[in-house]
């Protein structure tokens, strides 16, 4: 790991970058995983690398949906496993939910096994998806292979940072899909039941915390679920980004004028 002083202004972001790079060497992160991470970083920069206030509402609603589920499943790919394994384990405990490995690239069995073993070593318990026996209807890609006791059986699936083909197919299959995607324009973000526009490293711990707070508060859980409106959530995040960029532009102009 690189020697990086805590005082470095970009220390936290660079550490995540190094984590992705390290795990790309072993194949836990797909070859193109670092590129996806870079795209996420760009959007996170626009957010100010913090969870925006409107997204906190989405996190509350998502936690409520997970708590109300009969068979909730957290789908984990290489990038999420590398960035937030303990947070996945903690969320799985807080709900409680099953954890399933589901990857797009290099479905060799070996890669799924490596990710499942890594997640188990970080507290995720029995991880599903190593020998997937079911298929998502009308999804040709490798993400279509799912565990019969996991995603196939799930009523609510949470899909942190992934490419866009699956969210739509899962929704068409009758599942409620919560995505975590920093890119609010992505197909995943647009077709999910609810997208959380935030970094997985912040959103997953926040979801676990809120889930613990909401547990047993049935009226509040039902109200939050009834409030879910992904189109509205998407509009709020676009407004947040527009306003933040306008503010940054004004600040730059002020600095230039001295
Ligand atoms: O491990 P695999 O084989 O399943 O492959 C995983 C990747 C991520 C390589 C694969 O799913 C992929 O290519 O994804 P995309 O199409 O690049 O989409 C990833 C989305 O996640 C993009 O919209 C990124 O902006 C977003 N993203 C990247 N990093 C983060 C993120 N969203 C939240 N938190 C992040 N840390």
Protein traits:
two-stranded antiparallel sheet, six-stranded parallel sheet, binds ligand PTJ, 8 strands, Rossmann fold, alpha/beta
Q: How do the helices and strands line up, and which of them pair or pack?
A:
Layout: H1 11-26, H2 33-47, H3 53-68, E1 72-76, H4 78-83, H5 85-94, E2 98-101, H6 110-124, E3 127-128, E4 134-135, E5 145-146, E6 156-160, H7 165-172, E7 176-180, H8 187-191, E8 194-196, H9 200-214, H10 218-226, H11 230-257
Parallel strand pairs: 1-2, 1-6, 2-3, 6-7, 7-8
Antiparallel strand pairs: 4-5
Helix pairs in contact: 1-2, 3-9, 3-10, 5-6, 5-9
Bound molecules: ligand PTJ.
Verbal overview:
By secondary structure, the chain is α/β, with parallel strands linked by helices. The protein has one domain: Phosphopantoate/pantothenate synthetase (Rossmann fold, 3-Layer(aba) Sandwich). The protein is 55% helix and 11% strand. The chain is built from 11 helices and 8 strands. It has helices spanning 11-26, 33-47, 53-68, 78-83, 85-94, 110-124, 165-172, 187-191, 200-214, 218-226, 230-257; strands at 72-76, 98-101, 127-128, 134-135, 145-146, 156-160, 176-180, 194-196. Strands 3-2-1-6-7-8 form a 6-stranded parallel β-sheet, sandwiched between helices. Strands 4-5 form a two-stranded antiparallel ribbon. Strand 6, helix 7 and strand 7 (176-180) form a beta-alpha-beta unit. The radius of gyration is 18 Å and the shape is globular. It starts with 10 loop residues before the first helix and ends with a helix. The relative contact order is 0.15. The model has no long low-confidence stretch (mean pLDDT 95). Bound molecules: ligand PTJ. Ligand PTJ binds next to helix 2 and helix 4. Ligand PTJ binds at residues 30, 32-33, 36-37, 39-40, 43, 77-79, 83, 103-105, 161-163, 180-183, 186, 199-200.
